[in-house]
Amino acid sequence: MARYRRKDSGPGSWLVIIILISVFSGLAEFVLGSAFGLLGLFFEVIVPLLMFAGILFAPLIFIGIGIKIIVDAIKKHRGVSTSKTVSSTATPTVSHKRLLKQINKFFDKNQQLNIDEETYLLLTDRNNVSLETIDIYMREEYIGTLKDYFNAYPNSFNSLSNLISKYLNAKNLNEKQVVEEIKKEVTRTFEKDCAFYIKELSQLKDGIENQQVTKGLEETIHHLKAIKKIEDEFTESKSKTVKLYQYYLPMLTDIVNNYKRLSLNVDSNADFKNSEDRLLKTTVLINGALSTISGSLVEDYYTELNVDMRTLESILKKDGLVDELQNQEG
Amino acid sequence: MSEKPWSESLDEMLAKLNNGDFVDQSLYEFEKTINDSVLGARYQSTRKGSTYSTTNYKTVVPHIDRAVENAKYSSRYLHIVNCLENIVYHRYPESKKDGYQKAISYYLEEIKKHQSSLKAFDIQVSEDMAAYKNRVRSSNTDDYLRGYYDALLMVKKILNNSKLAKLAELANKVGK
């Protein structure tokens, strides 16, 4: 064991220790000196510069914030929505407010407001007249609120507002009188097919300046063309796309129409921005769904094709034709 | 949870969009949300290196018989009852099926009581959904409960679709 005992003392080892200490202390001095030098530079040059810039720009920033608060307050007072939210598309604009006022006045003396022979409106809360508290009834059945209608069909809602407003402005009308004779010949939405919406969206797309919107609509048209191709070849797949033509595409075209209508009216900038945001997001959503549908239709098409081929193969095998063909190929 | 069919997911997303749930999202973030949902697509590559896309779509939750779902109805009530009576349970886990069927038969009874007051029925379903959502969160392993909640989602979807069908009819009448 004595062989492995370390020699801890001796002139050589002391020398090594002294050299190491001097090397490391030199290094430490260099590092710390540089760090404190930089810190000094920061406090002596950069901080005063920042303070100077702050003193120079702070009044401008405060003035800017002040102007923004005042402009927002004025807009709010005038009834123009400044919030760029999707939900705010559902809040009444000035014309909606006027409409709600008229409806409120009407319900002071009446129980229901007839839209046509089978559709009417009912006010559910007299203390809070809003799109949410006005129910729509069709054939004596609750079908939703005006807000639901506005959310689903903003452009058609505008037409409905005009009809109601026209009726409410007219004098000497009875409680049960119909708002306006709506055309009897109704083209049902769900009778419109893929080709119809390709044409409709292609026409609507023209004249829209925002490239994001046109790009989104072009993608929709592209998906619809792919779906049409599958539907034409594989007619059974049509049963899977009924809901598209029933709800989703009418909804999208209505939103595009509303967007185009608002784009002509330069005064309603906030409404236009909201409508644009909603249109862009609805397009993304519908395109996602269309992509999924076309994918699943293709999968179904190939499954069907495989089944047909297997059936054919089994018939051929039964007749002994497969082996013959294979032999010929061989 | 089971994956949802595309129309259910689209209905849900549209409802959220209308409620302003995506207000704070930029278009880029919104696109990402959609791509991560059932409506998105996965990109995979073959051995040879070429890429192809597959959808996230899978029919595992019960669905309504397509002919029944796409039919035209004169009233919301008929639409709802017909859909509730024609649910297809193909590939749905047996452990969840009991809860699902129990809920469907309960709401079938309820709607028959509420034929003249569909608004009250709408409100009841929304309240039940909120209550069961909390219960499902606190007990994630109870398949009966999860089946019951899946059924509630289906009832809500049917209610929403019946509403949309009638609103579409009105929009068609009113025109643009």
Explain this structure.
The complex is a heterodimer of chains A (330) and B (176). Chain A has helices spanning 11-78, 94-109, 146-152, 154-169, 194-205, 211-233, 242-264, 269-318, 321-329; strands at residues 113-114, 119-123, 134-138, 141-145. Chain A has 330 residues and is mostly helical. Chain A folds into 3 domains: 19-78; 93-169, no CATH class; 189-318, no CATH class. In chain A, a hairpin with a 4-residue loop joins strand 1 and strand 2. In chain A, helix 2 (94-109) crosses helix 4 (154-169), helix 3 (146-152) packs across helix 4 (154-169) and helix 7 packs antiparallel against helix 8 (269-318). Chain B has 2 domains: 1-60, no CATH class; 61-176, no CATH class. The longest helix of chain B is centred in the C-terminal third of the chain and has 32 residues, at 143-174. At the A-B interface, strand 3, strand 4, helix 3, helix 4 and helix 7 of A face helix 1, helix 2, strand 2, helix 3 and helix 6 of B.
